[in-house]
Amino acid sequence: MDQRPRRTLLYLPASRASAVAKARTLDCDAVILDLEDAVAPDAKPGARDAAAEALDGQWGHREIAVRVNALGTVWSIGDFAMVARARPDAVVVPKLNSAADAAAAVAAAGGVPVWGMIETPAGLLDAAAIAATPGVTALLAGFADLAADLRLRPDAARTPLHHAMSIIVCAARAAGILAFDGVFTDIRDDAGLAAEAAQGVMFGFDGKTIVHPGQVATVNAAFAPSAAEIDHAQRLIAAHAASPDGVTTLDGKMVEVLHVAAAQQMLARAAAISAR
Q1: 231 is in an annotated binding site
Q2: Is 145 annotated as a binding residue?
Q3: Which of 9-23, 197-211, 245-259 has the lowest mean pLDDT?
Q4: Which domain holds residue 255?
């Protein structure tokens, strides 16, 4: 798994030229041009054309992905054909229900990496097999649809979704791919966004999908190592290196090889963010 920062993945309607133009100036790590939920049915063909035009390489450090319409819809064949021609960094495929769906998406994408959305009960139950499908390089949580299908009533802490969150992260880690948290839709609630982003970090997600430019800074900060974490990682590595037999403590806690590996990974992540 490469270390490039993927803290913030901004969804925006591919059909909205002003949003596309603004996204080119934002500090998000990735932009997802949406052809699905954010686009009305009669606007989808035009949105597809707009997405193809936007894939012009003028995105700076930002990765650029396209979210196509789900397999089996009347728009998906045209969406995948455009993706295979235009070659974005990834294609986001909604409502993958099985490994067979994932394999079909990979084939349709023509070599473009697939980021599969886990947002149905069937998809959640087959998440490990979906993640292990060659060509799938990330799982994205779609908790709004999943919660609706399961008839959940999530609270501010997303308590009923904790099991699903763990499954998605575990499936991604077992396959050696990325895992991204779902969106926070209340664009006026900065405190709620910060809390949910911190929770995503706690559950092990690599980053978070977002729906508004105003959410970029908060989520970037949550998914970047803090100064205190960087300092601790540096001291831990130094303490372990200074121990003749590799057995030592730091701040009263045992330091083991697994802690050193985690500290090194954190520092590599911090360096990648600084170098971007």
Answers
A1: no
A2: yes
A3: 245-259
A4: 227-275
